Amino acid sequence: MDRARSLMRSATSGDRVTRVELFFDLVFVFALSQLSHHLLEHLSWLGAGETFVLLLAVYKVWVYTTWSATLLDTSLREVQWMLLIVMLVTLFMNASIDSSFGAFGWLFVACYLAVQLGRGAWILTAGLDKTTHNHFVRTLTWGCMSAPFWIAGVFFDAVPRLMIWGVAAAIDLLGHMLAHRLPGRKTEGSRVPLPGERMFERFGLFYLIALGETILSTGLAIAGNLEDPLIFVTGTVGLAGSIAIWWCYFHSLERDILDKLATVDDHFRPGILAGNTLLMLLAGLILVAAGDQLVISDPSARPELSTVLLLFGGPALFLAGRGIFIRQVLGLRHPTDLIGIGTLAVLAGLSLLLPAFVAAIGALLPLIGVAVADTVIRRHRIQAANQLTTHPMPGDKS
After folding, report:
1. DSSP secondary structure of 124-160
2. If you average pLDDT over every residue of the chain, what do you get?
3. SS3 assignment, position 72
């Protein structure tokens, strides 16, 4: 608060996402690839738990740094250097993902805490307004609450380490879900100068990068299995799944978000809720990427239960996260998500009796159905709004 000048974004700051922010995001392509690889190498419930805890840590680094950068003026050298330093430390954190439950757990934790606590302390010197400053004090307090568990886990073997780190991850997740409230203290969202449109643009661009990693992993799997004649089917299905997810998120949902933000003053709460659901969407993509790789590697074999859970669980998790977001943030009810999840559950049971490539097609169809239904519903909603504008109801003096 005593800084000679504030680093906060001003009315004259540009609204567009800067290149340094997009450059910062690229280090997380590596992280998502590492997480998919870790899940495939440890294809069990224990491995799934490890992957989720690691994903949560990686995501918290991204989302807290992005929140900070969105509130600050990224054209300033100090802010750019903050992003680049976080990027460097995160690179080593991501590199240790596959060994984080082995010999290099200490490296993962050291990098994670260096970023979270170091950046959290640094931003308190950035000349924030009182409301934002107090919020980041509480954010740093929550980080200090989870830090002892992250550190303690390093001194145990894989299973107890997962349990201890699970507690740490739960504290971090709870803090984010509660907007880092403390007893008697909370953030008044309407007083936080958060440019909502810009924050949601960052969410969308990050998810687009995550989709790119899914396509990359599909392409690498295809390149390693070109001799299989079914590769054209499985490769097409894999890409079609990514396209369907892209359509469900960007074609209608993103437009609805911008329409909603234009009608509210508090962009802080929608940002918190969006951050919570984005974690679910990312987890779904990791499952999809892993499932596609398993199918492409042996498309004619009958899928194991783990493959089926990845193939159908990924799209189901995506639809669940999307549905929660639509309900909590937009205040809308989209039955298409529930119908899609139900259809995935039914087809998942049937797919255990079919070849893997047929199971992959079955996992794709509900996503296509939801994408088509969304398009039709939105078109009808726009037409109804246009008709109401053109032909107002009797008694409407406007």
Report:
1. TTS---HHHHHHHHHHHHHHHHHHHHHHHHTTS-HHH
2. 87
3. strand
- Most confident among 183-197, 208-222, 382-396 (mean pLDDT): 208-222
User: Is the separation of the CB atoms in 359 and 303 below 8 Å?
Assistant: yes
CA distances in angstroms from 30 to 214, 294, 299, listed in the order given: 11, 20, 26
Residue 376's domain comprises: 196-386
Burial-class residue 232 by CB neighbours within 10 Å (0-12, 13-18, 19+): exposed
DSSP state of 368: H
Burial 338-374 (b: 16+ CB within 10 A, else e): eebbebbeebbeebeebbbbbbbbbbbbbbbebbebb
Residue 59 forms part of a structural domain: yes
Each residue's pLDDT tens digit, 210-241: 999 999 999 999 998 888 888 899 999 999 99
Whether 133 is covered by a domain: the verdict is yes
Residue 398: band (very low, low, confident or very high) from pLDDT cuts 50, 70, 90: very low
Looking at 149, 172, 191, the residue that finishes a domain is 191
The arithmetic mean of pLDDT across residues 126-133, rounded, is 82
Instruction: Map residue 5 onto helix, strand or coil.
Output: coil
